[in-house]
Amino acid sequence: MKNMATGRIAAAAALSACLAAGGVATAANSTRHTTPPVTGTVAAVSPQDDALARDFAAVDRNTGWQLTGKLKLDFTTYHTEGMVLAGGHIFLSAVQIIEPTQKYPTPQGGYDRTPGRGIGHVFVMDRAGHLQRDIVLGEGDMYHPGGIDSDGSSVWVPVAQYRPNSSSIIYRIDLDTLDVHKEFEVKDHIGGIVRDKVTGHLVGDNWGSRHFYEWNGQGRQIADWDNSQYFVDYQDCQYVPDRKMLCGGVTNLPQTPAAGGTGAVYELGGMALIDLRSHRVLCEVPFQQWSTAGHVVTRNPLKLAAGGDTITMWAAPDNGDEGNGTEILTYRATVHPAG
Fold it and tell me: Which of 17, 21, 106, 123 ranks highest by number of CB atoms within 10 Å?
């Protein structure tokens, strides 16, 4: 009990430090951009970038990440999706599955599976992880919240059907009042979103993060482009000045026949820094630390912050019904950015 209490205090303190710092959309009039392959040297950061962009560019496979805290959540969290630390709160999106989707033998009506049934949640907590409000989001078959982000005044939440090539609603939660605003709908599954603080535009990625969209504040599509990388599927992202997004994710890889074959998977975790101007992946690193339930830590909710030569990561990879339940894990790493 003593160790658990110490971990909870340490995690709450780390979260407090970070918090203290800190219509239907269509393709009409939009521009499709194809990201060219990266050739030669691409600068990961510029003098205009903030500490997180500079520090993350110094992360590599040898970076030593140390687990410094575990904050166990004492309420039902279901399947966690995205996380935000903002406005004195912790926001955690999750999906409650009532009826799982089922794959069709052959596609029907453009879908590869049934819609299933569920409930979308955004849990609002204080800095110590105590539940303050359960915000239920979604309509009809759109019940799956994805990765979420905050622009300092609002939290942005995509809620999609739990199947590819489907539809989504983009919601905005006011940080001060926690009022919910339905902003616009999208004709695709949107699994994560960030807001570009320079342009005011929103950038979202679809099922498996194979494709990106950019919308203005009214939900009109400005551009879309394919993800040129296949390292991991991004699950949760955040905006990083100047005009970048930092994403974490996972790829489930089949094993050798001796290790279980296609029925057993290896979770490869990773993170990527993406330029919102060129749409290029500027730097990309694997992450192989494991949760209490045995999941790679970047599996779902993930946020990072930087201070001096230290990067702090918060993640919540485990569902409420596995391992020790959902824990917000805190990791720290020392880096040596260029310049």
Answer: 123
What are 180's two structure tokens?
């919910």
Which tokens go with 293? 């339930």
Residue 14 makes CB contacts below 8 A (sequence gap 6+) with 68, 69, 312, 314, 330
224: cis peptide before it, omega within 30°? no
Residue 256: phi, psi to the nearest 5? -65, 160
Domain of 16, CATH number, reads 2.120.10
Sorted by sequence, the CB contacts under 8 Å of residue 33 that are 6+ apart come out as 223, 224, 225, 279
C-alpha to C-alpha distance for 4 and 71, rounded to whole angstroms: 9
Q: How many domains does the chain have?
A: 1
3-state secondary structure of 9: helix
Residue 315 lies in a domain: yes
Domain membership of residue 124 (yes or no) is yes
Is residue 157 very low, low, confident or very high in pLDDT (cuts 50, 70, 90)? very high
What would the two tokens of residue 34 be?
Answer: 């194809």
Which residues, including other chains, have CB under 8 Å from residue 212's CB and lie 6 or more apart? 203, 204, 205, 206, 224, 225, 226, 227, 279
Distance, in Å, from the CA atom of 89 to the CA atom of 78, rounded to the nearest integer, reads 19
Query: Residue 233's domain spans which residues?
Result: 2-29+46-334
CA distance 237 to 240: 9
Give residue-wise pLDDT tens across range 219-264.
Answer: 999 999 999 999 999 999 999 999 999 999 999 999 999 988 888 9
Q: What percent of the chain has pLDDT over 70?
A: 87
pLDDT at 49: 84
Helix (H) or strand (E) holding 239: strand 233-240
